[in-house]
Amino acid sequence: MFCAKCGNPNADDSRFCGVCGAPLTKPTQPTVTPQTAPCPQVPVQPPMQQQVPVQPPVQPIAPVPPTPYKPYQASPPKNPENEPKKRGSGALVVTVIVLLILIVALVAALIYMLLSPKDEKKVSAQQTQLTIVGTTASSTVKTTGHTFESTYVVQTQEPETVSTEPTTEETTEKPSETQAEIFTGPLDADGYLLAESNIRYLNESDIAGLSESALQYAINEIYARHGYIFNSPRIKAHFESLWWYYGTTPSTEFSFDVLNIYEQANLVFLEKAKQELEA
Asked: Under a CB-based contact definition with an 8 Å cutoff, are residues 274 and 215 in contact?
């Protein structure tokens, strides 16, 4: 150890310096304190104070006085005139029902008019003798409102057409002229005298002013619609000149069943009118 005063080295166990005699003191070593790792410091929050809601002061409820008792009084009867008119669905429902009834009635009337004949009289059947080109046949003619009992003849000779015989002058000027070319009469553009004789019943206004030969032509016209082949060359030539005529059935094979109820009734009607002119 060294002397602190003179710096002379001395033995470690010496108590005094051998040179200057100063007391020797052992140097004290500083005590080393081990250090630990610093711990993170968590900030400490102050305790939260719980807020208690402050309720408003309760006001005392005033006592309710009891309701005085009123005796029962009957209400006066209501006057319907003074009450306001109710606008609801009732009027609409009634209107719809009335309209439906009217529509059903109109539809029923329309169906009845379409299905029923124009003449509401009872349809009667009668036997009529038909004579065509010397052949007699029996046929049942259904008529509506007509009660004719007559024998009518479909003639096939020259007097049965509405025509004018050619004069001597016409024969000289046009010797090759056929009966169809010189045929005259009240015909329409298609060569019909009574164009609706197959779709409705004829009446007096339809044949007003027609001659006996014109009525016979109207009878032949009904048969011509069904392809009846006439035996007379002149009558045959006349109908063959019309665009709508097609001769398909000879007179001996013709059946009256092909005629409808209008045509059968109109044959009776035309024959009766023809017989009245003959008388």
From this structure: yes
